[in-house]
Specification:
Chain lengths: 465, 518
C-alpha cells in the first residue's frame, strides 16, 4: 500500500528516484557527504510512533487538550497580563485567511495587502495612544518596557530607570532581563518608586527623592498593574521632564475610549499590550506589545522594531508601503543595530487592525464604559461580602484588588473552593505583594454579565462563610 | 499559457483605500451592552468612574464602519498577498505545510480560551503537550531541558546570551568574559542579541573553505570569551566539519557554545547538537516544525540546554510528578533570563508537537532526506541556466538543504540584478526569493530552500520561471528592470523611508507631512 506522507509531495519512490537520477547520486545518504561520519548520531531516536492519519492525530490531540478546562465553560476573573475580552468573530475570520496566515516576506508589490494591514495597525493604535510614530509589535508588554528603557537610556545617556513598585512581577522580570547585570557596561539600573497605601497611586514624595540627573526615564502604568488609574499622570510627567528624564507610560488600549491618551499628559513613549485588541488568551500565547512615540528623529532613530511607512512606487501617485529606518534594525546592522528584532507577532497585528476598525471611536467608548460599570459593580458587590475588603474602592479600570484577610481563609483555598462552583477566582497576589495580605486581583470585562457577577458574589459568600 | 510556456497569472487588484479613509460618521461595526438593568443605579454615571482630569473628551479618530465593510476590506487586502499562494522557496525560513488540523484545534476554547494563570489542574492538556514536546526535542538534540518562552528565533538567541551572562555572573567572572564570538555567516540575531545582552561581538570572517578557520577561532578565543554562537550548516549550504573542534576550543577557554539550529531541516534525524558538544541550541517551531510563518509570528524559538545551564533558566518549566500529573516549576534567579511573559505561544507549541507526532522519527528523517534531495535536484537544473552560478563554486560537495547562488554573471551581461529578478518572479505567481542576510559575500545572491513539502512539479515550475526571467533579461531587460507588471502596484521605490520629513508610520503623520490635515 502506498503510504506517502500527506505533508510531503515527494515522499513517493518515483519522485525520489527521479531526483536522485537527475542529481546523479547513488543514494540519498551520499547527499550528506559534508557531515563527517563521527558527527552522525549512533543513538537511535525515540520519538513516539507516528500518528500518520489525521483521524488518529486529531483523536489524540483532542483527547489530550480536552483535559483542559477553560474560561468559556467556567466563569473566570483572571487578568493581570492576559485578559478575557470578547473577540469579534471577524477578527478570527481575517487572520485565519491562508494568505495572511502563511505569508512569508515577499515584495512590497506582491504582499501589498499585508503591509497595508500592518500600516493600519500602526495608524489606528497611534490614534488610541495619541502618537504619530508606531513600530510593528514586539513580543509582549514586558519586551516593550525593556526596549523602551533601552531607548531612553541611549537617548539620555542616563542608566537609571524608575518603575513603580506595584508592577506585574513577570513584566518586571522581563524588563530586568533587558537591563543586564551591574558588572556590564551599559547596564541599566532599575529603581522602584513606592505607592500611596491609601490610593494605590504612585508616591510622588518618593518619586521626587529619586529623581536626579542619573535617571533616564520614569516608567509608570495607567491603569497600573492592580487596576488603579493614575490621576497624577501629568504631574509625574512634569517631574520627570524637569529632571531631564523621559516619561514612558504603559497603557491598556481597552481603556483608551474612556481615558485620555498618554500623549495628553506628557508621555514621551507609550508602550503596552496588544492582546486585548481581538486576540484570544491562548493560555498566555496571545501576548504582544507595542512601542509608540511622537514622530521625532530623537525617538525614531532609537526604535529596534521594523516600521511600515507609506512610500512611493515607480509610478507617480501610486501608494505603497516600505520599511522605514530599516538600516538601524539588526537585520540591517547586526550588532551595531538598535537592540534586535526578528519574528514577532505580526499576524496578530492584522487581527488588531481589524479589531480597532470594527470598534471605531464609539466602540472603544462603549467598551470602556461597559468594563467600568461591570468592574465597579463587581467591586461594590464583593465589598459587601463579610470579611472581604477592597483597599482601593474607586478610581480603577477593569481590575481591582480584593482582600480576604478578614475571612481568615487564604486566597489559594478560596480559589480552590470557587472552582467547585465553576469559577476561576482572581489572581492570587499574596506571595508577590505580601504587603497586601491575602488578596487577589479580580478582572471584570465586557464579557461578564450582571448575573455572572451576582453568581460570583453568592459563591464567595458561600465559600468564605 | 504565455509565450514562454508558463501559466497566465495576474494578482488581484483592489485599489483598496486605507481603512482610515473608509466609512461614514455614525456607522458601527461592533456594539457592546449598555443597558445592564440597574447597573447605573448601583455605580452611578459611567463618566464619574474616571477621575475628571483623565476623562477622554475627544474620541480617538478611528474609522466608522459597519461589520461587513471591515470584513470585505481585509478580505481584499488578503487577496493582495501572494506569499504561499504561489510557490515560496524562501531560503533560511524553511517554508512548510502548516497542517490545518492544528489550525482548527488551536482555535477551540480548550486552547484559545485558556488563561495562563488558571490552576495547573485545569491546564493538564496544555502541560502534557509542552512536556511531550520537551521530551521529543530532547530526543532530537540530546539536550536536557527545553523551554518555549522565547517569542521567536531571535528571542531564543537573546535568551542564550542572557543565560551566558547569568552563568558567568554566578562564577564571578562576568566582568572578565565580555566577548561573544560568532561568524559572518551566522544569522544577524546572534551578534545583535549578544550586543543587547551587554557583550562585545567578535565576528570571524568567511574563508576559503566556506567557513571561518579553526585557526581564526583559536586566535579569537581567550579568557575573555563568554560564548560562541553559530549556525551550522549556514545559509550557503555549507556544513562546517570542524564544528566539534570549535566547541572544544571554546570550552577549553571556559566559554559556552550555542548552536543556532535555524537550519535544522537538513540535519534533523542525523546529528544531535549535544553530541557535537554544544551546551545549548534553538529550534524554530514556526519554521522547521510546521507552524505557520504568519508573516513574522506568533513564533516560538524553543531553547534547549544542558543540565549545567538549566539552573539559569527562569522560564517556567513543565514537570511530571510521580502521580502522573503535570506541574509548572518556576526556577529561581528571577529577572536575569526571563525574555517574555508566560510559558510561550501555546498554539505554536501545539502545532509543533502535532507535526512531530504526525511524522515520528522516520518521518523526520524522511523530511530531511527530501530537503536535500530537492535542493540538490534544483541545483542540477539551476546551474544549467546561463547567468546562474553557485555561491563559492569551488566547493563542489553536495550542499545541505539550501544553496546560495549568484546572478552576478547575468548582471554583468544584462544589467539585470537579483532585485530585478525577485520583482519579476512575482509576475508569474511565484513568491520572491530570499537574497541574503547581511553581509552579502556573494554578488547578486539568491537563496532558495526547497524543503520537503513542494512537489517536483512545483520545483520545476519555479526553476522554469528563473530560466524564463534570465532569458527575458537578455531579450528585453527593461521588462525585468521595470517589473512587476502583474501585481496590484508597481515596484516599490521607497524614497523618503529614511527621511524624517517624509517617513510616515501612521496615517496621521502622513497627513501632517503632506499638508492633508483638516
Amino acid at each position: 500500500m502506498n503510504r506517502a506522507h500527506p505533508y510531503m509531495a515527494n515522499s513517493t519512490e518515483e519522485a525520489k528516484k527521479h531526483m536522485l537520477n537527475a542529481i546523479g547520486a547513488a543514494t540519498v545518504d551520499d547527499l550528506f557527504e559534508q557531515i563527517p561520519d563521527e558527527h552522525i548520531t549512533s543513538r537511535r531516536f525515540g520519538l513516539p510512533e507516528p500518528l500518520a492519519s489525521e483521524v488518529e492525530l486529531k483523536r489524540h490531540l483532542t483527547g489530550v487538550l480536552g483535559k483542559n478546562e477553560h474560561c468559556e465553560d467556567n466563569l473566570s476573573f483572571l487578568g493581570g497580563g492576559t485578559w478575557q475580552h470578547h473577540v469579534p468573530a471577524i477578527c478570527d475570520e481575517i487572520w485565519t485567511r491562508s494568505e495572511f496566515l502563511t505569508s512569508v516576506w515577499g515584495t512590497g508589490s506582491s504582499d501589498l495587502g499585508r503591509n497595508q494591514a500592518w500600516f493600519e495597525f500602526a495608524s489606528q493604535l497611534g490614534e488610541l495612544v495619541g502618537m504619530e510614530f508606531v513600530g510593528l509589535p514586539v513580543y509582549s508588554w514586558g519586551a516593550a518596557v525593556g526596549h523602551s528603557m533601552r531607548m531612553a537610556t541611549r537617548m539620555t545617556g542616563r542608566g537609571r530607570i524608575l518603575v513603580p513598585a506595584l508592577m506585574d512581577p513577570q513584566r518586571l522580570d522581563v524588563a530586568r532581563t533587558y537591563a543586564g547585570f551591574p558588572e556590564q557596561e551599559g547596564h541599566i539600573e532599575i529603581a522602584y518608586v513606592g505607592y500611596d497605601p491609601a490610593t494605590g497611586r504612585l508616591d510622588l514624595v518618593d518619586l521626587e527623592s529619586r529623581l536626579d540627573d542619573g535617571v533616564g526615564a520614569v516608567y509608570f502604568e495607567n491603569p497600573g498593574y492592580l487596576g488603579v488609574i493614575e490621576d497624577q499622570a501629568a504631574e509625574i510627567a512634569r517631574m520627570a521632564r524637569a529632571a531631564g528624564a523621559e516619561t514612558i507610560v504603559g497603557v491598556d488600549p481597552t481603556s483608551l475610549g474612556v481615558i485620555v491618551p498618554p500623549s495628553d499628559y506628557g508621555a514621551d513613549i507609550a508602550v503596552g499590550t496588544t492582546q486585548p485588541l481581538g486576540i484570544h488568551m491562548n493560555g498566555g500565547g496571545g501576548v504582544g506589545g507595542f512601542i509608540a512615540t511622537r514622530d521625532e528623529e530623537r525617538y525614531a532613530r532609537e526604535y529596534p522594531t521594523l516600521q511600515v511607512s507609506l512610500t512611493d512606487t515607480t509610478h507617480e501617485g501610486e501608494r505603497a508601503f516600505g520599511l522605514a529606518l530599516f538600516q538601524q534594525s539588526s537585520y540591517g546592522s547586526r550588532e551595531d543595530g538598535k537592540d534586535w528584532t526578528g519574528n514577532s507577532v505580526y499576524l496578530w497585528a492584522i487581527a488588531n487592525a481589524a479589531y480597532m476598525s470594527v470598534l471605531g471611536p464609539a466602540g472603544f467608548e462603549e467598551l470602556g464604559g461597559a468594563i467600568l460599570r461591570r468592574s465597579h459593580y463587581a467591586a461594590r458587590r464583593l465589598a459587601a461580602v463579610p470579611g472581604v475588603s477592597l483597599p482601593w474602592r474607586a478610581g480603577f479600570f477593569k481590575e481591582f484588588v480584593v482582600g480576604f484577610d478578614g475571612t481568615g481563609i487564604p486566597v489559594a483555598e478560596i480559589n480552590r473552593r470557587l472552582r467547585d462552583h465553576g469559577i476561576f477566582g482572581g489572581r492570587d497576589l499574596s506571595s508577590d505583594f505580601p504587603d497586601l495580605g491575602q488578596s487577589a486581583l479580580y478582572c471584570v470585562t465586557e464579557v461578564h454579565s450582571r448575573a455572572d457577577i451576582d453568581r460570583l458574589t453568592a459563591a464567595l459568600e458561600e465559600v468564605t462563610r | 499559457m504565455t509565450t514562454n510556456g508558463l501559466r497566465k497569472y495576474h494578482a488581484a487588484v483592489w485599489d483598496e483605500p486605507l481603512v482610515m479613509e473608509m466609512g461614514a460618521p455614525g456607522r458601527r461595526g461592533q456594539l457592546f451592552p449598555v443597558d445592564e438593568p440597574d447597573l447605573g443605579s448601583v455605580v452611578g454615571d459611567t463618566s464619574d468612574l474616571i477621575p475628571e482630569s483623565l476623562r477622554r473628551g475627544r474620541p480617538a479618530e478611528l474609522p466608522e464602519l459597519s461589520e461587513p465593510e471591515v470584513l470585505r476590506h481585509y478580505l481584499h487586502l488578503s487577496q493582495e498577498v501572494l506569499g504561499m499562494m504561489g510557490i515560496s522557496l524562501f531560503g533560511t525560513c524553511t517554508m512548510k505545510y502548516n497542517p490545518r488540523v492544528t489550525e482548527a484545534l488551536t482555535r477551540q476554547p480548550f486552547v484559545a480560551g485558556t488563561h495562563p494563570d488558571q490552576d495547573v489542574e485545569t491546564l493538564q492538556g496544555t502541560l502534557e503537550v509542552i512536556h511531550g514536546l520537551d521530551r521529543m526535542l530532547r530526543d532530537l538534540t540530546g539536550m536536557d531541558q527545553f523551554v518555549f518562552q522565547p517569542g521567536g528565533g531571535a528571542d531564543a538567541a537573546f535568551l542564550h546570551a542572557t543565560v551566558t551572562r547569568a552563568y558567568h555572573e554566578a562564577r564571578g567572572d562576568l566582568a572578565q568574559r565580555r566577548e561573544i564570538i560568532t561568524t559572518a555567516q551566522a544569522h544577524p540575531c546572534n551578534p545583535a542579541t549578544a550586543a543587547a545582552a551587554g557583550f562585545e561581538v567578535i565576528t570571524l570572517p568567511l574563508e576559503e573553505k566556506g567557513y571561518a578557520s579553526v585557526e581564526a577561532l583559536r586566535a579569537a578565543a581567550s579568557e575573555r570569551t563568554a560564548a560562541l554562537m553559530v549556525n551550522n550548516p549556514d545559509d550557503i549550504g555549507i556544513y562546517n566539519p570542524h564544528i566539534k573542534e570549535w566547541v572544544d576550543i571554546v570550552h577549553s577557554v571556559g566559554g559556552l557554545c550555542f548552536y543556532d539550529t535555524a537550519n535544522f531541516n537538513g540535519v534533523m534525524g542525523r546529528i544531535r547538537a549535544r553530541e557535537l558538544g554544544f551546551d545549548a541550541c534553538m529550534m524554530m517551531l514556526h519554521k522547521t516544525f510546521g507552524a505557520p510563518k504568519a508573516g513574522g509570528g506568533p513564533a516560538v524559538g524553543a531553547y534547549g540546554c544542558s543540565e549545567d545551564l538549566a539552573p539559569y533558566l527562569t522560564a517556567p518549566v513543565v514537570i511530571r510528578g510521580d502521580d502522573g500529573a503535570f506541574a509548572i516549576e518556576v526556577p529561581e534567579h528571577a529577572g536575569s533570563t526571563q525574555v517574555r511573559e508566560y510559558l510561550g505561544n501555546i498554539p505554536v507549541i501545539i502545532k509543533a508537537y502535532s507535526w512531530l507526532r504526525a511524522l515520528g522519527a522516520a518521518g523526520v528523517k524522511e523530511a530531511a532526506d527530501l530537503s536535500l534531495l530537492a535542493n540538490n535536484y534544483m541545483e542540477t537544473r539551476l546551474l544549467q541556466i546561463p547567468g546562474v552560478s553557485k555561491g563559492l563554486p569551488h566547493l563542489d560537495e553536495y550542499r545541505m538543504e539550501m544553496t546560495r547562488y549568484s546572478l552576478g554573471e547575468l548582471t554583468e551581461e544584462t544589467g539585470v540584478t537579483t532585485v530585478d529578478v525577485a520583482n519579476r518572479m512575482v509576475d508569474y505567481g511565484v513568491d520572491a526569493f530570499w537574497m541574503s542576510h547581511e553581509p552579502w559575500f556573494i554578488p547578486e545572491p539568491f537563496t532558495p530552500e526547497a524543503g520537503e513539502m513542494w512537489s517536483v512539479e512545483d520545483l520545476d515550475y519555479w526553476i522554469d520561471v528563473i530560466a524564463a526571467i534570465c532569458e527575458e533579461a537578455r531579450t528585453d531587460p527593461e521588462l525585468v528592470k521595470t517589473a512587476p507588471h502583474n501585481q496590484p502596484i508597481h515596484r516599490v521605490v521607497g524614497s523618503g523611508l529614511d527621511d524624517p520629513d517624509r517617513w510616515a508610520t501612521t496615517w496621521r503623520a502622513y497627513r501632517r507631512k503632506n499638508g492633508l490635515e483638516g
